[in-house]
Amino acid sequence: MKRFSLLPLRPAGSLLRVAAFLLLATAATAAVAPNVLRSRIAGLDVLIYRTGVRDVVTIKGSLPAGDAHAGGGNGAVASLCGHLLDQGTTRHGKFEIAEQLERVGATLSFSVGPQALAIEAKCLKQDVPLVLGLIAEQLRCPAFQAEEFAKAKAQIAGNLQRAAENTDFRANEAFLQAVYSPGHPNRELTTDEFLAALQTATLDDVKAFHARTYGPAHLTLVLVGDVDAAASTAALATAFAGWTGGADYLHPAATTGTDAPREQTVFLADKTSVSVVIGQASGLRYGDPDYVALRAATSILGSDFTSRLVASVRDTEGLTYGIRAQLANDDFSDGDWKVTATFGPNLLNRGITSTQQQLRKWYEQGVTDGELAKRKTNLIGRYQVALATTDGLAGTLIACVNRGVGPEWIDQYPAKLAALTLPEVNGAIKKHLNPDRMVVIQAGTVPGAAAPAKH
After folding, report:
1. Domain for residue 257, yes or no?
2. Within this chain, do residues 426 and 305 fall inside the same structural domain, yes or no?
3. Pair (90, 214) in one structural domain
4. What is the DSSP string of 187-224?
5. Within this chain, do residues 224 and 316 fall inside the same structural domain, yes or no?
6. For 238-285, how does the pLDDT look when each residue is reduced to its tens digit (9 = 90+)?
7. Which residues pair with 221 in a beta bridge?
8. pTM of the entire structure?
9. d(Cα 36, Cα 56) in Å, to the nearest integer?
10. Over the stretch 157-176, which tens digit does the pLDDT of each residue have?
């Protein structure tokens, strides 16, 4: 449901902070996929990539245990379960685990999203077995203590209540409700629904969720950096031996749409800006045939300082400090397309009008040859730069697995971008989008809007 980023157990040491930004000597230019060691170890899908960075290893993982996996049960159990992973196990207390990590300068954290529990760790080469052992221990046998459960409920509720005062958060919440049909994994609970679920959730509910969804069947771990493959494989085989079970990701049919009003206002009092989302369900999953073409077209419209929306709505007209267009929520299922922007209340109507004019022009006339040529170069360069750190490469590898495109996509993606033609790009816009079907969400102190009645 709601994405809560759980804090690392202890801050990283200075060596790790520096090493996280060391450039990999060859990852951005050499083929990556042929050098990925991929195997099943104790039931896990494990990808290992050794780089030129010395001594440091980045670990990223993904487990199908997100909020959408609550099914028809309590919608807060996944977030509660993920929150309790670093609050002690049946073998070690939370302070013991924290001390082990701190002693070697390692970090380890978990966070829960709509579909996945994300795992992130960083450590020195010689400490990989220790960290992998802790990951396994925390996934397999969390203590689930009543006292920590009560604290988790209070902390998550507090985080959500604070988030509910954020205009961006509320605009996105309303957008997801408007464009995804009931039952779709991207349709998150509302703030009120989630808070209600938190109140009624029991520790037994969380234990049952853990037993049903946690397991190696669809768990992926990626190790990038100065990895000793033999030592890491042995550590994984020992740490995860005998573990069974696990759920798969949810891959629903494309959303069927909703009957939500096309224009919605979420009134929040005393806000200095209004967050706006204009968009629709895209019907596309990452890796679908038209995805790269629509991604390039969307980037031309609004992904950076050279995009159309920034050049017109922000720079020329001075109506906003922030505006962008993006495809999102499409790793595991069909996703959405949206423009997000922030306007002062006195500039809101002009800002929305200007944005919609640029959107309409882009939709009806498409992009130009010159724009596409420049954007190809830009996107390819940014992609290769992202692969130049252990964090970036590990994140890209785990994303490729989650998206169902495999490690080979890393090498194929720049070529796919370079091969795009103007008819493909402009055709993808018309095929998958329609400004007349888009919803417009406004969240904040909207002029003329009434505050919700107090119950």
Report:
1. no
2. yes
3. yes
4. -PPPHHHHHHHHHH--HHHHHHHHHHH-SSTT-EEEEE
5. no
6. 999 999 999 999 998 877 778 899 999 999 999 999 999 999 999 999
7. 46, 61
8. 0.91
9. 17
10. 999 999 999 999 999 999 99
